[in-house]
Amino acid sequence: MADRGAPRRGALGFILVTVALDATGLGILIPVTPQLIRELGHGNLQQAAVFGGWLTALFAAMQFGAGPVLGSLSDHFGRRPVLLASLSAFGLAYVLMGVAPSLSWLLAAQCLTGLFSATSGTAYAYVTDVTAPEERPRRFGMIGASFGLGLVIGPVLGGTLIAYGTRVPFFVSAMLSLSNVLFGLFVLPESHTREHRRPFHWGHAHPFGAFAELRRQLGSARLILGVLIIQVVLQTLPAVWPYYTMQRLQWTPRTVGYSLGVYGLSNILVQSLLTGRLSRRLGSLRAAEVGFLLVAAGYCGYAFGSTTAIAFACIPLTVMGFVTQPSLVSLMSAQIGPRTQGALQGMVASAASVAAMATPLVMTHLFSLFARPAAAWYFPGAPFLLAAALAVAGSQVVLRGARAAT
Fold this sequence. Notes:
It is built from 18 helices and no strands. The chain has helices spanning 9-41, 45-77, 79-99, 103-115, 119-129, 136-161, 168-187, 202-205, 207-218, 222-248, 253-273, 275-282, 284-304, 308-313, 315-319, 324-333, 341-371, 382-405. α1 runs antiparallel to α11 (253-273).
């Protein structure tokens, strides 16, 4: 039986480093991808935004199908092999992006990363295995802080390294991922004990089967819907931020990278200092609601603000949305047994992938529609206003879901 109070320090460190590197890779792509798409496709910024949306949606589509499968595989075989295989695949994908001679190569690399994008969900399952329920919000907050650290390092690194060539950031990401595989081979023990493992069944592994099983255990689908909504809200920013700020505020890729570094640093502070405290003081449900409402306020600032000062001032409000998902996951993980924690995290990953499919397509098209010089109503902040409305609605969905589950 794993020691739930004290996971081995090297193992927990590996999990936190893994999540940070995952976010670093994603962060590197944000300021760099628009320029790479334009180089390969020879289009303007608006056309690059639309293709960037399709690129992200492809990744999410692959993740949607693979997330529950990999979660169920980790319930059967353990967390360690799934994590190490995923990191290896990510390293290879970054190499493919770095040498891509055409847009089709970028699409192929996104397919590969989507198929093996189990790092975040399996990391949450690993921490759940070794952590008592009352400590999970704090440790989930540590995972979120690690993600925030990656968002600090990634965009700044991408915005800086692009000066040496558009491809350089991708090779740096590959080196980091593959180095972490070697680190994990030595320090990562298995957390999912054999008595808690369950047989792998395709009926439980595909997204709809996993959803039906978890809905039965939770008594309501609204909490999972809440995860989907907060993912749509949070993914709106990386989907449109570089295009929005370049268009409305005339930022350069380097400024975009630095702004996302501030965003990531603010996320670290929120996750490390506030997530656990808010959950203990308010309870996981109320903490999730607070996150929904504050991110809505920040997005309204983006929608109607028109200066760099307003954009930076709204970042602390926006990152409060990262309190919501750890609080919801903690709430759900306490209601199910240890045999299905991997399935839960796989379902959370699938919800995130559904959001990642829909959000870039809808929000980048919405931006393109309202940011055109000839638009009947010039309003580049339209995606942020829609996301704010969704956040307010999400707070009510979660409240009703928690009541239905009790």
